[in-house]
Amino acid sequence: MEPDKVDLHLLDPARDELLWRRKIATLAARAWLHRQEHLSVTLQLLRWTRPALAMAVAAALVAMVGASWVEPRAATTIATEPVYQFAAWATTDQIPSTVTILETFGGHHVAE
């Protein structure tokens, strides 16, 4: 048993030759006019403002959502390293004693 053939000729856009040529001519004229536009750099930037802002907003939303899922690291693990202690002394103009320096940068902080 053979299924009935579906008549698809009604979907053919070129079946009405005059209408088809008119549509192609209209499309070609619009493309030609668009190509003839000489936009300055300023006008081109203005045309891209809305899409660029939309992309920036989307990126900011993704970053905010991603940041809300990440647990913050404890600051105490970073602050106990000798480098951060030295930076704290340097930024506050503190002059630690020799004993404090040796305790902070002593042998137990040496990387192996």
Summary keywords:
112 residues, mainly alpha, 6 helices
Any overview of this molecule?
The chain is mainly alpha-helical. The chain has two domains: 9-69, no CATH class; 75-106, no CATH class. 62% of the residues lie in helices and 0% in strands. It is built from six helices and no strands. It is elongated, with a radius of gyration of 35 Å. The model has no long low-confidence stretch (mean pLDDT 81).
Distance N to C terminus = 82 Å
- Uncertain parts: none
**Principal-axis shape:** elongated
The biggest sheet amounts to: none
CA gyration radius, whole angstroms? 35 Å
N-to-C series of helices and strands = HHHHHH
Mean pLDDT rating: 81
Q: Specify the helix fraction band.
A: 55-70%
- Total strands: the figure is 0
Derived structural class: mainly alpha
Number of helices: 6
Number of domains: 2
Beta-strand portion reads under 5%
In short:
The protein is an all-alpha fold. Helix content is 62%, strand content 0%. It has two domains: 9-69, no CATH class; 75-106, no CATH class.
SSE diagram, text form:
Blueprint: H1 17-36, H2 41-47, H3 49-69, H4 75-79, H5 82-91, H6 98-104
